[in-house]
Specification:
By secondary structure, the chain is α+β, with helices and mostly antiparallel strands. The protein has one domain. The protein contains six helices and seven strands. Strands 1, 2, 3, 4, 5, 6 and 7 form a seven-stranded antiparallel sheet that branches. A hairpin with a 6-residue loop joins strand 2 and strand 3. Helix 1 packs across helix 3 and helix 1 crosses helix 4. It is globular and about 75 Å long.
Length: 174
């Protein structure tokens, strides 16, 4: 016959509840960052649509329309990479400036000062998450090369968190 005292049962209950509460907090934190990422991409859609930034994606070139309806823009942002022309990266830079004006913190992050390839990151709460790719041109001037689609980032959000190393702010005096 096994005899178990109340102290052991309470200890067991607290351990099980503690693990369950910790798992619930982790899920809650993950859903917070997912919601913030979705909110960022909602703003990205609105800026894209309202300012007619419709010339960097293959989907936009296939539509070949001067005005793209908002549902199509949502689909493009969900499905397609936004590209910058390395020779003339200003439109994508201007696009990100609109998001910065809305209050988003966005940086270009490189692992070291001599790296030519890095990531573009947005701050969600207290963490930075990669949302695209940045590069340095021949003169060492950084520019945003791509913004990745939401369908790529959202399922990988736990792998997209970055620690800023060598950062460059995206600023109006590019």
């Amino acid at each position: 016959m096994l005899v178990v005292d109340n102290g052991f049962i309470k200890l067991l209950e607290s351990f099980c509840l503690g693990a369950a509460m910790e798992a619930e907090i982790q899920v809650s934190n993950k859903s917070f960052y997912q919601r913030e990422l979705e909110r960022f991409y909602d703003d990205l859609v609105n800026v894209f649509w309202r300012n007619h930034f419709a010339f960097w994606t293959e989907a936009c070139s296939e539509l070949n329309e001067p005005y793209i309806p908002k549902p199509d823009v949502e689909l493009i942002i969900f499905e397609d990479i936004l590209h910058a022309d390395p020779v003339y990266p200003d439109p994508l830079h201007e696009f990100l400036m609109c998001l910065i004006d809305k209050g988003w913190k966005i940086i270009m992050n490189f692992m070291a000062s001599d790296c030519i390839l890095g990531n573009v990151a947005v701050k969600l709460g207290d963490k930075w998450f990669a949302i695209g790719e940045c590069r340095k041109d021949r003169d060492g001037v950084p520019y945003v090369a791509q913004i990745w689609p939401l369908k790529y980032i959202l399922p990988r959000i736990n792998k997209m968190e970055i620690k800023p190393q060598q950062t460059f702010l995206i600023a109006s005096n590019f």
